Amino acid sequence: MEIAISALLKPICILPLSQMVSKGLSRLELGHVLTEQNISRALCGNPEKAKSIADYFRYEKTEVFLNRDWIGVCEDSLSFITKLRNKRLLKEIPPEVEIKTDEHHGEVHQYSDTGRVLRPLLVDENLKKIALLKGSSVTFQDLLYKGIVEFIGAEEEEDRCTAWGIEYIFREEESKEPVKYSHYELNMSFSLGLSCRIIPFANHDHAKRVPYEEQGIGFLTTNPNIRVDTLSHQLYYPQRPLFRTVISDCFGNQNFYLVVMGQPLSLITSIGTMLLW
């Protein structure tokens, strides 16, 4: 089976932020930067309106939010979430819509706004459809349309149980206490950030070695004299390591930089790097 990856997917490595906001995981590697999607109230599961605040507390209903705006309530949050996610797999709502449940606060959140980074994951319940595609040329959009691959954001990923790879299916059968996974990584290497992927034998190194390995790159940027960040150090005489990884050969080109800041609902990019791209 031949798969052509869409041009919308670019390698994105996001570092953890100091603010307590879910902007993405440090292990993000394959991502999709989202533009805003229009989603009507009818496609949101038609949550009912509470007549009063007292009516909401009396029946202990779950609040429903769309892009952080309150739109109604629902009685059974589990069936409500299941119905919405089935609609997303059937493409009745855009696949980029993120659905998140917060049982602690009794809330259901739906996100269709801009500035969210999504990761493609294999859906457990639709893996059998891959056998039907054997011998045919398949694009990434075909996998997305058939529900084999699903976009999952940072908020929704907290509700999902994701395995490191598809080989964990066989480990479930051999285990005495099998874990029910909902999604699988496309490849185990996608779980690592850029800093980890340039370290040979990273699974045998201490975690503190990852920041130190950034110094082995030499000059990360073309404007080190005017930069104000202190996240890296420059080596005047960088040495070539004895062992290298495949990702090490990808450096030295003009790269597109995505800057993620603590300002909500925004993506800030560098116009200069876009012109060089």
Distance separating the two termini: 31 Å
Strand content: 15-25%
Q: Quickly give the structural class.
A: alpha+beta
Which radius of gyration do the C-alpha atoms yield? 22 Å
Number of strands: 14
Number of helices: 7
- Specify the overall morphology: globular
Average pLDDT over all residues: 68
Poorly predicted parts = 1-30, 273-277
Please give the largest β-sheet.
6 strands, mixed
Give the SSE order as H and E letters.
Answer: EEEHEEHEEEEHEEHEHHEEH
Helix amount: 10-25%
InterPro entries: DNA-dir_RNA_pol_su2, DNA-dir_RNAP_su2_dom, RNA_pol_Rpb2_4, RNA_pol_Rpb2_5
Protein name: DNA-directed RNA polymerase
Pfam family, one: RNA_pol_Rpb2_6
Domain DNA-directed RNA polymerase subunit 2 hybrid-binding: 196-255
